[in-house]
Amino acid sequence: MPSERDRPHTLPAPSRALEAAADLAGAAGAVATATRDGDRELGQQAGIVTAASAAVSRHSGQSAHATLPGVLADVPVAVLVIDQKSSSVIYANSAAVELAGNVGLPVDADAWGAAAGLTDLSGGPLASSSGPLSTVAQGRPITGEAVRLSPGTSTERERADADDGHGDQLLWVTGFPLSQVDSVEQLALVVFLQLDPLEDTADPEAYLQALRERAVIATDITFTITDPREPDNPLVWVNPSFTRITGYEPDEVVGRNCRFLQGPATDPAAVSQIRSALEERRTVTTTLLNYRKDGSAFWNQLSVSPVFDGEGTLVSFVGVQTDVTERVRVERERESAFAAEQAARREAELARSIAEQARSDAERAQADAERAQNRLALMAEVTSALIATLDMTELLDRLATLCVPRLADWVFLTLVDQYGEVRETASRHRDGRQAELQEFSALHARHLPPASPSRRSITTSRSVLVDDLSDQVREQLIVHPGAREAFEKLGGTSALTVPMVARRRTLGALALVMTSPDRTFSRDDVELAEDLAARAALAMDNVRLYQQEHTVADTLQRSLLPELPFVAGIESAAHYVSASSAADVGGDFYDLLDLPDGSVGIAVGDVVGHDVAAAAAMGHLRGVLRAVVWEAENADPGAVLGRVDRLVQGLQVASLATMVWVRAMRPAREGAPWRVHVANAGHPPIMLRSPGGAVRILGEVTGLLVGVDHSTHRETLVLDVPSGSTLIAYTDGLIERPGRDMDEGIHELCERIVAAPVDASPRDLCDAAVSGALDHRDDVALIAVRFG
Question: How many Å apart are CA 293 and CA 85, to the nearest integer?
Answer without folding.
Answer: 28
